[in-house]
Amino acid sequence: MSIKYLIDENLSSLYKEQLSSYLPDRAILKIGDPDVPCEGTLDPEILIWCEANDFILVTNNRSSMPIHLAEHLTQDRHIPGIFVLRRKFTIGQILNELVLIAQAGDPEEYRDRISYIPL
């Protein structure tokens, strides 16, 4: 199974554009794209979509996402993973890490947890 990313609406479109160019064989979507949650969708609904469609969520939501993930898991649900971006790193550093994870990472190691990128 390959890693697929759903980019949060609050992140720059550069993430989707650059990841799509580095990983042309992977699904890289952004909230608001066709067939994904629309902008303004509540985080719990986004997690359900990610679970149903097997996408890792890439976000900068550090404050409420841990709470939403805990609630999601207590409902006997699962999530392929959530990557929260660290503040002090450049877009280039974060993109390099996301590309490396997509190419060499084991999707199971991110299941049902939040990982902070770069790792």
Textual characterization of the structure:
The chain has four helices and five strands; from the N terminus they run βαβαβαβαβ. It is α/β, with parallel strands linked by helices and 119 residues long. The protein is globular.
List the helices and strands and how they pair.
Layout: E1 5-7, H1 13-22, E2 28-30, H2 43-53, E3 56-59, H3 65-74, E4 82-85, H4 91-104, E5 114-117
Parallel strand pairs: 1-2, 1-3, 3-4, 4-5
Features:
119 residues, alpha/beta, 5-stranded parallel beta sheet, 4 helices, 5 strands, 38% helix, globular
In short:
This protein is α/β, with parallel strands linked by helices. The protein is built from 4 helices and 5 strands, in the order E-H-E-H-E-H-E-H-E. The mean pLDDT is 96.
Shape label:
globular
| Poorly predicted ranges | none
Strand order of the largest sheet: 2-1-3-4-5
The overall strand count is 5
Q: Evaluate the radius of gyration.
A: 13 Å
Q: Helix- and strand-based class? A: alpha/beta
